[in-house]
Amino acid sequence: MKRRILNIFITLLLINLNIGGQVKLFEPEKTCWVNIITNDKDTLVGNLFSVEEEKIKINKSLNSNFNQIDSLHYSNIFSVTIIKESQVSSSMGNGFLIGAGIGLLLGLASGDDEGSFIRFSAGQKALMGGVAFGLAGALMGLAVGVGLSENEEIIIRNKNDLFYLKNFISNKNELNKSLEKRNEEKQIENKPTKHNVDIKEPEISFNKKIEIAFYLGTTSSGPAQNIENQLIKSGFDETTYNWFSSRSITHPISYTGFGELGAPWFFSLKYFYSKEYAFGGIYGNNPIGSTHGYNNQFGYIFLNYSIKTLAPMIWFKYGVLNLGGGPAYFFTKTWEDNSKNISNTSTVGVVFDLGITFPPYSSMFVAVNAQLRYMGKVNIGQFEISDGENVLVIPETKVNFSHTAFSLGTGFRF
Description:
By secondary structure, this protein is of the alpha+beta class. It has three domains: 29-84 and 151-196, SH3 type barrels (Roll), CATH 2.30.30; 86-150, no CATH class; 207-413, Porin (Beta Barrel), CATH 2.40.160. It is built from six helices and 21 strands. The protein has helices at 2-15, 88-110, 122-148, 159-171, 177-189, 224-233, and strands at 33-38, 43-51, 55-59, 69-73, 77-83, 152-155, 210-219, 239-241, 248-250, 253-256, 265-272, 277-295, 299-318, 321-336, 342-358, 364-375, 378-380, 383-386, 391-394, 397-399, 403-413. The strands form five sheets. Strands 7-11-12-13-14-15-16-21 form an eight-stranded antiparallel barrel. The longest helix is centred in the N-terminal third of the chain and has 27 residues, at 122-148.
């Protein structure tokens, strides 16, 4: 039995090898499926076999059957539609995984809640964040997948349109992985290309030079530590107890990041003047968070803080990777809940940007982004707190609004 299995295996192996210099039968190599409409409104569907100087050949068979190859002169063709494989499911899956990963990390990084009426552990927030960001990522992936799966129609009017079709197939190697594999083989073997299709090193078409994106994410704590230190000096460091448990709450305490005061967001606009370089800018609003203090005489104080960013920037692009930076102007706001105590300031600084956009050159894309926003310290306050009879003044305080931001986004290129 073993010998019989071995003989069968050797026989199959010999069939698939070129033995003794025997030349393997030539088989058409797949490029992509096309739908051809003739001038007589007839429709032909098949695998593109070759694009020649004045004609197109397609193989209407699912296998390598030379008897089903049709040749059409360009003068008889009205249009050729490139039929792309659907990428909706894979894009949605990738979007969900990226979003869920970001949500899990953000939930774990935020830690356990303390001192709130409704408290969540880091694990619970990681689970909720993973589901929420995963669904958002899947929706973005759906939009990208639909865009990538749109068929490409090429109207054939003259020989130049055939040349465009040939280059389209050559450059858009993502339509079929076998095309990319064939290109690599030709570079290694340095042999003429079969079927008269001039497969060259893929060159990215730069018709889409403008990129617009919207990002939503979370930030680090910014000025929270400086504000906590000042509240301690001002006496807002008393301990309270939760209404429904004996758990003590030590003040001051800060709540920062996504959802604590709102959702940090920003827009980016880029103009690519070359394949690798772009200039443009970002604008965003970042509600960083809130710091709570308690004093036995004056009660609670809730100081909220946010920052708006406006920055002209330049970027370097390498595939999916984007590196950028530029000077920035920051507008900070610090205010007390249910009070007219508001402190607005502004300062200058820099923004450093690191992003991944996928796909790198399509009309629609999803993105993961990290930014460092660095600025000089600003003075906030003073804040006056009253118990009805007495007034306590929290003096002007120098704080640092510098922070990092992590975001998930989607955008368009045109």
